[in-house]
Specification:
- By secondary structure, this protein is mainly α.
- 71% of the residues lie in helices and 0% in strands.
- The protein contains one helix and no strands.
- It has one helix at residues 2-25.
- The longest helix is centred in the middle third of the chain and has 24 residues, at 2-25.
- It is rod-shaped.
- It starts with a helix and ends in a 9-residue tail after the last helix.
- 0% of the residues are buried.
- Keywords: Membrane, Transmembrane, Transmembrane helix.
């Protein structure tokens, strides 16, 4: 059970970091600024 929780936590952490990168990079990208 601990391994399952750890795996889910790692996946959630990766998803959260990717979302943060997208949120911080996209608005400052001139090519994607509509």
């Amino acid at each position: 059970m601990a391994a399952f929780v750890r795996q889910r936590f790692m996946v959630a952490l990766v998803v959260l970091s990717v979302m943060l990168v997208v949120v911080f990079i996209l608005p400052s990208s001139p090519s994607l600024n509509t």
